[in-house]
Design a protein that fits this description.
Number of domains: 1
CATH architecture: 7 Propeller
Helix content: under 10%
Structural class: mainly beta
Strand content: 35-45%
Number of helices: 2
Length: about 475
């Protein structure tokens, strides 16, 4: 049967229609001037679709085929490469020339022919650690890709030492020790409340494994770490066997459930975890955690309900108290569910968060870009630097025909101080219907964009981004491929 995406609610005309191609662009067009102290690879992940998903698939961006992009910066020039992660799932569907895997994380909706095939779409995030570039999806093990060619190398279980069935897309890498803290939830299979937390040394070898039980079956999409603790938030999105058998995607919001935060000492075991309880909060991604003298804090974007606007808030835990509650304070009313930081300060005392947000006082130019009229509040028109200590915000507005995706902080070559570098983000350009990579000086956002990398095609809405300097990556071998 021929491929036809028309009429599917996930794919209105525009940037969310499937990309469906791989590409190389050598020496990309650049407007402005890229500083020569940017040297390394900007990675970006998107969920793409080769075949039409079920009509009731609503998890836009989370159940498509993994498609990774690499933009290599060297001497003020940029080379682009985009490739699919050729998972067992993708290969099975290409062989059949049709969709075989059903709605998001629901095996009951899969074609019986793929019951024994790895269900990973490898489509959410990417991390470089232990000499490997891992592409992650939270319901399965990582897949490895070559960091320069993006060739798919296969599934990875850390030489058999990662025994959980799942690994989240949000491990944390401690910049002080070089260790990676990784975890999996539903770690013994679908609908289980098992959590497995792992520590990998800088070589990528598993050196510690801790098994826990979640207070209830809820989503655990991200964690935070400090120098002493791992914070494990269980969020009020839940599921059940009955829901899956009815053919629905795995998760649904349940505001009657509490937010539960597990605080696990990094040098402790399962018996040492302490669970804190708070009201239902809608959040998936976290900024950073810091511990100081018996007090543990973390900052994150969160909202009171499923569709409420988010704010940047601080959760504080008094580790000396016997209370099982945590304190919540507003750091900033600015919205933005995908804040990032200077990862060189992860798990330590820090100051700055970088995020895309929306300034409703500056409307999009719908005459130049009619497609933005339907986007409304879903556009992101400002790049911000938030001081989490004072609440001060510095920002720049992108062009009124652009909408920002997740940004990424890039330290300038040789930089030592926090926030000394650049902020990059893919911007959907609704006038040209192509994608731009906008670059700004993180310390001078109010001076505007300093360079824009122009791609001659569109990339659909992405999930996550990361930056790795060339100094930590293998030598470049494919300049002209």
């Amino acid at each position: 049967m021929a491929v036809d995406f028309r009429g599917h609610p996930m794919f209105p005309p525009g940037f969310n229609s499937p990309t469906r191609f791989e590409a190389d662009v050598y020496d990309c067009e650049v407007w402005g001037k890229i500083p020569t102290d940017i040297e390394g690879n900007f990675y970006r992940m998107q969920c793409d679709f080769e075949y039409r998903p079920p009509q009731n698939e609503w998890m836009t961006g989370f159940n498509g085929d993994g498609h990774i992009s690499r933009m290599r910066f060297s001497n003020g020039s940029v080379d682009y490469k985009g490739r699919y992660v050729k998972t067992a799932r993708m290969k099975a569907e290409r062989t059949a020339r049709r969709r075989l895997f059903g709605v998001y994380r629901n095996r009951f909706t899969d074609d019986p022919s793929v019951a024994d095939i790895d269900r990973s779409a490898a489509n959410t995030h990417m991390y470089w650690h232990g000499g490997k570039l891992m592409v992650l999806k939270e319901d399965s093990h990582p897949w490895l890709v070559d960091p320069q060619t993006l060739d798919t190398l296969g599934s990875w279980d850390f030489n058999g030492k990662y025994t959980a069935k799942t690994m989240s897309a949000h491990p944390k890498i401690d910049p002080v020790t070089g260790e990676m803290i990784a975890y999996g939830y539903e770690a013994k299979g679908d609908l289980t409340t098992d959590i497995a937390v792992y520590t990998m040394n800088p070589k990528g070898e598993v050196i510690k494994e801790v098994w826990l039980k979640s207070p209830y079956l809820g989503i655990i999409h991200d964690i935070a770490i400090s120098q002493k603790y791992v914070l494990i938030p269980v969020i009020a999105r839940t599921t059940s066997l009955e829901r899956l058998k009815s053919g629905e995607p795995m998760w649904q919001w349940d505001g009657s459930l509490p937010t539960m935060i597990g605080v696990l000492p990094r040098d402790g075991d399962a018996k040492d975890i302490r669970w804190y309880k708070g009201p239902a909060r809608n959040t998936l991604h976290f900024l950073n955690a810091t511990d100081r003298g018996g007090k543990l804090t973390m900052e994150l974007p969160t909202s009171d309900g499923e569709r409420d606007p988010s704010q940047i808030r601080r959760w504080s835990f008094d580790l000396k108290s016997k209370k099982d509650s945590f304190q919540e304070d507003v750091v900033s009313p600015t919205s933005g569910f995908l804040p990032r930081m200077d990862d060189r300060f992860l798990s330590t005392d820090y100051r700055y968060a970088f995020l895309g947000s929306r300034d409703p006082s500056v409307p999009p130019d719908v005459k130049r870009a009619p497609g933005m009229a339907a986007m409304g509040p879903f556009t992101s028109n400002v790049m911000q630097r938030l001081d989490v200590r004072t609440g001060e915000i510095k920002q720049l507005h992108v062009e009124p025909v652009q909408s920002l995706q997740e940004n990424c902080f890039v330290p300038r070559k040789g930089a030592k101080g926090e926030g000394d570098g650049y902020v990059m983000a893919i911007a959907s350009n609704y006038e040209s219907m192509t994608s731009d990579l906008v670059i700004a000086d993180a310390q001078r956002l109010d001076e505007g964009v300093i360079a824009t990398v122009k791609l001659p095609f569109k990339l659909r809405s992405g999930t996550h981004t990361n930056w790795y300097p060339q100094s930590v990556l293998p030598p470049v071998k494919d300049e002209l491929s």
